[in-house]
Amino acid sequence: MSLANIFKGWIGEKTAQFGMWLKLDKNTYRRFHNLILPTENGTTQIDHVLLSVYGIFVVETKNYEGWIYGDKTQREWTQVFLRKISFKIHCIKITSTLRHWQVT
After folding, report:
1. Domain ranges of the chain
2. What are the beta bridge partners of residue 43?
3. Do 48 and 97 contact (CB within 8 A), yes or no?
4. Structure pTM?
């Protein structure tokens, strides 16, 4: 992974974090960012967790362009750009997000 991609990902996470701070009422939503949790295989990192009376929301931030289609059961998602170019994205992070749900 290049330094430019790491920086782009960091910018995406900070933009999402700022948007949550700006738009979500602090009395309704408790926000946690960049959590590291232990697992059987080491650790897992969660970008954002929101706790509220409406539920617990786990948010995985991606700083990608275009439309992305897929669901939690698929190992690959499809990314489509405005010019109708598409390709498959191998989603290792999907399985890691599923592990987030299983952490006790």
Report:
1. 3-102
2. 38
3. no
4. 0.65
